[in-house]
């Protein structure tokens, strides 16, 4: 038999009031709460990107629909339809900012570059065959005037979003090669004319 002592009673009371180690269920609950919070943060961040980054909604839409490589522009008949891609439906005009000279109407070889040309997974150039075009990127669209003549392709963007350049160019089948200094850009045609 054990005898009662105040010292032992105090020791027993301390043992019973000491914090217990969390059990497995408590750990699972905490893990689940953390996982839910992480998912909520990701959803909120994605919503902020879609709301505040121009063009992001297309990339998000393509992600959920299983499409890849940016977006493939529409074509109508034999001419690439670039009009829907212009901001507010406004086509480039001589009233916009222009740094280099392009030949009115696109030059004698404008029809040769007509179409949709893909540079990489996020950059597409569209030429309408009449001296107007647009560069589509994952972030934004940039309209431009262009002319093609005698192996030279001049591209003059309406905004500072693109670099105005006069390229040497060669078309070989469905490949367009544009060269500026020691830089070479290889495009593949994505529409059929």
Largest sheet: 8 strands, antiparallel, barrel
Q: Percent range for helical residues?
A: 25-40%
Computed Rg = 31 Å
Shape: elongated
Could you say which structural class the secondary elements and strand pairing correspond to?
Answer: alpha+beta
Q: Count all strands and give the number.
A: 10
Physical arrangement of strands within the biggest beta sheet:
3-4-5-6-7-8-9-10
Low-confidence stretches: 55-79
Give the percentage of residues in beta strands: 25-35%
Number of helices: 4
**Mean pLDDT value:** 74
Distance between the termini: 103 Å
Series of H and E elements: HHHEEHEEEEEEEE
Describe this structure in words.
- The protein is α+β, with helices and mostly antiparallel strands.
- It is built from 4 helices and 10 strands.
- It has helices spanning 6-17, 24-52, 56-65, 110-113; strands at 75-76, 79-80, 115-118, 124-127, 132-136, 141-149, 152-157, 165-172, 175-180, 183-189.
- The longest helix has 29 residues, at 24-52.
- The model is unreliable at 55-79 (pLDDT under 50).
């Amino acid at each position: 038999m054990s005898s009662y002592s105040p010292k032992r009673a105090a020791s027993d009371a301390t043992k019973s009031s000491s914090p217990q180690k969390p059990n497995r269920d408590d750990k699972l609950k905490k893990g689940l709460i953390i996982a839910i919070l992480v998912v909520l943060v990701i959803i909120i961040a994605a919503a902020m990107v879609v709301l505040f980054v121009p063009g992001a909604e297309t990339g998000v839409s393509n992600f959920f629909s299983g499409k890849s490589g940016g977006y493939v522009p529409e074509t109508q008949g034999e001419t690439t339809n670039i009009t829907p891609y212009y901001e507010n439906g406004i086509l480039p005009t001589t009233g916009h900012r222009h740094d280099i000279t392009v030949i009115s109407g696109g030059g004698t070889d404008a029809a040769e570059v007509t179409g949709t040309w893909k540079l990489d997974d996020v950059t597409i150039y569209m030429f309408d065959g009449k001296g107007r075009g647009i560069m589509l990127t994952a972030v934004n669209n940039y309209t431009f005037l262009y002319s093609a003549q005698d192996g030279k392709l001049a591209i003059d963007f309406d905004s500072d979003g693109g670099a105005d350049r006069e390229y040497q160019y060669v078309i070989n089948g469905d490949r367009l090669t544009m060269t500026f200094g020691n830089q070479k850009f290889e495009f593949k045609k994505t529409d059929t004319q």
